[in-house]
């Protein structure tokens, strides 16, 4: 059996990096030169999707799809979530209002989350320790969502694996 997991979140949160950290195949990306305000943060950005794959013992595969972070490419969010089991939402804590960013992406993916599951990974907490994880958890509860929230470094395979194992555990245990 094959599984499909979606990675979503704002530009620069680490979606492409996270997929590359755990993929067993070279990651296929649709990177383009950044423009607008994005160019102030990074040279290139995902414009359609990222794709990687994780091979599980027994021959099963987890297909990893990263969505573009820019809202002008939001039509891809609906396309990429078709057949997905859950969402790994990455949020960059270094941004001016990362909790509002999380709220935006939760709302944008809400119908998908309501049918499936979500885990939230907060990146760059080493560079910006505030707000703390409890602020995100409280906002999720306020929104009626019970989801685990982790501090992660998208470059570290073990951090990304924790997000995936948490998501798969929620689904397997029927907690969603």
TrEMBL record:
Alphabetical list of SUPFAM superfamilies matching this protein: P-loop containing nucleoside triphosphate hydrolases
A Pfam family the protein falls into: ATP_bind_1
Superkingdom assignment: Bacteria
Gene3D superfamilies: P-loop containing nucleotide triphosphate hydrolases
Gene Ontology MF annotations: GTP binding; hydrolase activity
UniProt entry keywords in alphabetical sequence: GTP-binding, Hydrolase, Nucleotide-binding
Matching CDD domains: Ras_like_GTPase
Protein family: Belongs to the GPN-loop GTPase family.
Protein name: ATP/GTP-binding protein
Species, as recorded: Parathalassolituus penaei
Origin organism lineage: Bacteria, Pseudomonadati, Pseudomonadota, Gammaproteobacteria, Oceanospirillales
